[in-house]
Each structure stands twice: as structure tokens, then as C-alpha cells.
Amino acid sequence: MILTTQAAPDEPTPLGVHATARIRATRTGKTTTLPLLHGSGPFDLRRDHPYGDQARVCVIGAMNAPLGGDRLRIEAAAEAGAHLHVTTATATIALRGPTPGHATYDTHLTVAEQASLHWLPQPLISAAGSNLHQSCTVELAPTARFVLREEQVLGRTGETPGRLTTRLTVRRDGHLLLDQETRYGPAAPGWDGPAVLAGHRATGQLLVVDPSFDAQPLPVRLLDDDPAHGQAALIPLAGPAILVTALAPDTLHLRRLLDAAHALA
After folding, report:
1. Burial zone of 18 (CB within 10 Å; 0-12 exposed, 13-18 middle, 19+ buried)
2. Which of 8, 210, 227, 228 has its CA 20 to 30 A from that of 46?
3. What pTM, to 2 d.p., does this model score?
């Protein structure tokens, strides 16, 4: 389910940038090609050098976004047999905008039969005064392979975070695999308490969906060389997938934990 916000008929359209970027990867012979690569607004899409039969795309920010009132969306599809890798050039910073309204940043990903998609953006930073609703919706075919890494930083150095709501919904073969929502910052009860971030300011997760997990599922594991430097838990889902949730004091330690979990998977 994609979280979108639409003004009621009797309300004015919110100010801000409205932009959609689209990526489509298809199988052509022994390689993956990109017949659709369309960016707009803050999204500048660049082809990277392919890796084997995997096409690679980098999303470059062309302006400050998301700001309050912005409505941003990215759509990416890996068609049958295609292999796609998408990342971003730099971290995304959610900032206070010219309007008091929140911004939305929606991502919709589709992976077809025998295709794969690695969605590995740089961290999202929730700056003081910002208000962002972020969602990611994923539709997977039964034989699709998928890797997603999400990282959030709550506030820049020496500042409190803004308001951040994130939702991740994943369906495989039409059946719900994962649906979770988290909220951080002012007005989110207990977000910084011992049951949630426990004083840490960087949080993230790694989702790996692979049909081979049906035959050889991974066990539950806790990754915490030093709790002061962060902790991560690897948990198998009710399907051929694992979810890693990590907390750390900064992005460096967070990435180390997620990379270690990815190596296990």
C-alpha cells in the first residue's frame, strides 16, 4: 500500500514540488537494458557501469528535497529475467519547507519472475523542523530476488530530529510478506526510549527475499560486538526472506552492522 496525501476538494493544493521518477529494466539477450529512465524535479537519473548482466542506476539530487509540502515518488520495475541495482549519490536530507504541511516520499518497486532488484539508497537524514511521510511498496513475483537497505539518521550533529514516519509494505505472489510502520521525533511517544532507539540516533534495516531460503532458512541471530556501538537482529520472516533491524550511534557503525548481516545472508 502506498501512502499518499491528497487535498480534500474544498482545500487548496499544498505548495511544494510534485515530481515522479521512473526506471524500467528489461532483459535483452544476455544483458539488462534500461528502456525507461525518466527523472524530474529533484531526481536526476544516471546510468552507472553495468556489473555482469546487472544494470545499475544512480539517483542524483538536483535540488534540496524533500521539503515541507513536496510530493515525491520513484517507480522502479525489473521485468522478467532483468537484474537492476539502484543507489543514490548522497544522503537525502528532509528539511523544513515553506509550508507547515508534511512532505511525502513514496517508492514503488516491482520485480518480475526470475528478476532481481537491489535497492540500496544512501541514508535519509531527518533534520530539525522537518516533517516527512516516507513509504516503500514492493510487489514481488514468486521467483524474484530482492534486497533493500534503509537507513535513517535522526537529526544532524547537535540538533534534534524532525518528524519522520516510514512505512514498508512487501507482497510476494500477491500475499503480504511484511507490513510495518515506524514513527520518530516530536509527537511520537517513546521513540527515543529503551524500547525503541535507546538513545541511538541511527537506525536501519536490511530486507533480503530469496526463494532459496525456502530450502535453507537462516536462524535468528543477534549481531552486537559492542552494544555501545550498536546492535542488530537478524530474523527470518514467514516466507523466503530475512529482516535485519539495526540501531547505532552513527551511520558508520550502522552500515557495518548491516553489511555484516548482508554477508551472512
Report:
1. middle
2. 210
3. 0.90
